[in-house]
Amino acid sequence: MTEPIVPIDLAVVGHTNTGKTSLLRTLLRDPGFGEVADQPGTTRHVESAQLLTEDGQPILILRDTPGLEDGMAVLDAIDRLVRPDERPDGPERIRRLLESPEAVKRFEQEARVLATVLACDAALYVVDVRDPVLAKHRDELGLLAACGRPILPVLNFTHSAEGKADAWREALARLGLHATVDFDTVAPALDGEAQLIDRLALMLERRADTLARLRADLESQRLRRRADAARLIAELLMDAAALRLLCPQDSTDMATVTVSLRKRTRDREQQCVQALLKRYRFSRATFPYHPLPLEGERWGMDLFNPQALKAFGIQVGKGVATGAMAGATIDAFTGGLSLGTATLLGAAVGGLWQGANQWGKRLMGRVAGYMEITVDDPVLQLLGLRQMALARALERRGHAALQPIDGSTLSPLPALATAGGVAVSGAAPGTALPETVRPILREARGHPEWSSIGDAPATDPRREVLVGRLAAILDAEL
Amino acid sequence: MTRHASSPPKPASRFLRHWQAEAVRLREAHQGPIDDTAELDAVLRGPPELGERILLRAAMLGEREGLGPRLVQWAASARIALVLLWGLALFAGMGTAAAALGTGGEPVNLALALLALLGLHAATLLAWLLSFLPGVIPSSGLSGFWLWLTAKLARGPDAALAAQALASLLTRARAWRHVLGGISHGAWIAAFVGALSTLLVLLSTRRYTFQWETTLLSPEAFVSFAHALGALPARLGFSIPESAVIARSDGLHSLPAAAQAEWSSWLIGCVLVWGLLPRLAAGLASLVAARRRLRALAVDPGLPGWLELRDRLMPRHQALGIDAPAPGPATRVPWTEPAPASLAGAHAVLGFELGSGADWPPAPLPAGVLDLGLCDSRDDRRRILDRLRHPPRRLLLACDARQTPDRGTRAWLAELQGLCPRIDVLLLYGPGRAALWREVLDAQGIPVVPSIAQWADTRPPPDHD
What we know:
The complex is a heterodimer. By secondary structure, chain A is an alpha/beta fold. Chain A is built from 18 helices and nine strands. Chain A is elongated, with a radius of gyration of 29 Å. By secondary structure, chain B is an alpha/beta fold. The longest helix of chain B is centred in the middle third of the chain and has 39 residues. Chain B starts with 13 loop residues before the first helix and ends in an 8-residue tail after the last helix. Strand 2 of chain A pairs antiparallel with strand 3 of chain B, so a sheet runs across the interface.
């Protein structure tokens, strides 16, 4: 199981300013790797990093190289180094260049790139498809091909409107590079990495085993990330659903308690957002000017603003509270005693401390004229949908992306629409959490001690079971 | 399994490590993450599994924060509380037995004595059994008292955290109820030991008479009651009085001393078999269950607080650094003093790297301006250089502003600067990266013109001849 792996060594090459470092950031899921700017020559040395497997073994080495900027002059220089009566092969020509004095002077950067490619298993040639195909690009590719290593062109920025992906594919085919892979570093396809690895496996047949393992490893990482996101959201929903604040039946006190309820829920949501960002390895540092990478209507709006519900298409009944009490539900005496019969039995039988104590306190509270305030059902829906949308957006976001996540990225619809056949409640898809979530949240409402933001949180294995179940449901929806 | 010999000292027991990890987790959940940069390195050099790394990190943080000793201290307090509880139970058992028998002056009412000795025990044992039904909250009478007592004994920082972490850890491991059950069963065992020894001592040293009383029930009911309760103790050698003796023990007949001895044996048997033995069995079962659950104690990396640690503790990539420092920042490319213009026409236009499919020329050229065509490939460059052996007075380069002006471009511009007395650049398809172009062109000393027409109008250029 833990036989040592010989890592695959890849050089990431390309013309200057095509997003080589961005590709590394996205592949490594590290927005802090290297330096990125819309300028030529941002990366001026070869910076490497390696991907580790689950058990910490290096499996893939990625080498970020400086951009090739002067391929034509390099070719001219090589021509000068070769006597007319000689016919040296590609690697030999490159070797001569690297040994020439110009390799440490004018062509210092090109020489670094070529030396790196010579030492690697294969090269990823990053193309900005917004650029036209020019003769200098062909010359660069010729230079790289002379290194005698497989080259896989990676088409970057394929999502941009002015992309010329087809022209590039055709031009690459004319140079004998028939396998290409689309990989938008800002918004990579979900299976982008897998595609990249598959293409590599075709080129590096002898390393197919390692690549298969890498692929499986990445996939399991992706699934784990998703499961973790679902768990984080499930915890949030559980905390919000179980939150139950006692308040006297006085309208001013009631408003104060409602404010507290809202604040706790809001803070808890923020906490979940931070945890999701962290899990998907998007640091605050990526967004220096935004306290949260969340913009646009959907995010600007407060959780307890009725408009926010509408923005997410959540149906709101007529009887919903507005104004000071918006988003909160007051339990009436009759319906409020939501402890199950089994719990009642347990409290009656056990009769001594915990159960009766808690139950008795609540009963006494009612008799003394207290009410209980909980988070409204539609707000719970909004909470869940918003976090699901965020998780989806993060999953589809490259670590090269510098723009904050805005409302349009956070459309709650697409993934649910493609999930197909998932039980979604009566309304349009994506406007509600799955029906199966309801009984879980309903049960949680009866256990104020389950809420970590409540007044007296306590551990309960039943809560863990329900969180697990809830997370599984949400995971299937993500 | 540890790879390195230099791993930090480990806390004594596995259980303590888990307890400490839970305490650290709860504290981080309440007070925000603890800074672990110093410890992270050692953790990453430590065991390869995530669970072990979480435990190691918690152990190191706990040691730094002094949490470990406080947990140990709390455990000591809990042990003292347990001894106190069990001691109290022992005395309570002795007291109950003494009270049930009385001083010997009055005859002992068998039914009431048995009720006093076994009644509460039977009720709580039944409640404990019922608590295994789904959805029933386990009662925690005696163990609740133990926790309260521990809290009173273990004052000081983090005492509440220790208790909370213990409860949380054991609850999640599904061992909490067994631990609490074991504690209350232990108290009952102590109580019965006390009660039985008191019974033995009192019954050995005092003269008691036993009787039953009833108003409502028939004597037969009491006979069958005594037989039912006595059947099992009888198998262990305790005696049951004869049915006739039972019937005559109504306090109205005088009985031989042997009958009183039989009754006392029956009473002791009942307390032993229906009191001590079930509690021993339940206590043993709780102990076994708790131990088994505790042995299966594992870190759930999905828990809030630990879930966020995965990326830190199990990094999926590692920086390998750079090959060599970069040379100094890019500077302008030097060019040589150009030769005087000699090309007829004096003005020329060249499209630089616009792509082979570009619209050329971008606008109708004014009269007298020479069109040098497009320059993309090395062949084009050679052709242009050839033409520029007789350079024009002024050369206009049309460039694509959307592209990045790279070193190759700068070198080419410098090469042209060495050939032509004056070069201007027209940026097409702007704005694109026009700002970047202006920066590069400024450094090379090449002006940017807004259009071909304007460039052509600016005449005559400052002549040198």
